[in-house]
Amino acid sequence: MFMRHLLALVATLLLAVPAHAAAVRDPASPTILLTGANRGVGLALAKEYASQGWNVIATCRNPRDAAELQALAKSNPKVIVERLDVASSKQLADLAKRYRGVPIDVLFNNAALLGDRNDKGNKRQRFGSLDEELFAEVMRVNVLAPLKISEAFVDNVAASQQKKIIGMTSGLGSLTLMGRMSNFYFYQMSKAALNMGFRAMRNDLGKRGIIVAMLAPGMVETDMLAESGFTGKALTPAESAGGLYKLVAGLTLEDKGLPVNVDGKVIPW
Ligand SMILES: NC(=O)c1ccc[n+]([C@@H]2O[C@H](COP(=O)([O-])OP(=O)(O)OC[C@H]3O[C@@H](n4cnc5c(N)ncnc54)[C@H](OP(=O)(O)O)[C@@H]3O)[C@@H](O)[C@H]2O)c1
What is the distance in A from the centroid of ligand 1 to the CA of 168? Predict the structure, then answer.
């Protein structure tokens, strides 16, 4: 009788944990999961959190091409590189399954796209030649994906100590700041929509003690900034990541839940 119960228990445990389950290297340290960690602000965030002793689950869509991220993982065993195209429901489901039960203190939705990098002159998101396919892609990656990734990992975040979900917003999503800009219809719309989605999610997840925040990195010298044509003063990715690290550390459930820039200033709606 006892043996039968024991066997049933073992079978249940084996079924509950997938054979290929992933684990973080140091369960005593906090853990962050980042999207778009292969370049730009995402890579700088991976380096910043790694230098602060965190476990870093650094996701990107092409791990094999992510040389700098792979080098970071090689030098720091607490950094794990995982494949995640944020627009792929299949890859997301697989990753979430492998990390089932692993607490994630900070889920940082960083990946996004400005538009079509091959579209010189950015015609596909200007009035007169607005492109349906590009609209769908930008909204999928910049708006829907952060929400679906949050859904997929919400139990991991709820099981952690810090319980924080971040959406990377932008001043370009602000009606007040960007009232006279019209070069990037889809990107601007996507960040405004992300803000509203995260605002709604904040209401739902606050009940579970989860802090949902919208943070912007400031103007940062990355491929995206170069693509935008901006040539003014900008932060280095490391400066931005350092500022974001401090902002995330200071988040509380009592915050107002408004979009905040890396310098701590609220981005007006
Ligand atoms: N730079 C700025 O001045 C600035 C200002 C305000 C807000 N932001 C925001 O800050 C975040 C980071 O921007 P950044 O300047 O670092 O941009 P970036 O240099 O263009 O990097 C974008 C990152 O997103 C990833 N990505 C795009 N589509 C993806 C997909 N389908 N699946 C997975 N990853 C995908 C890219 O991966 P691949 O290499 O595979 O393409 C790359 O890692 C974004 O949310 C952006 O909107 C940036």
Answer: 9
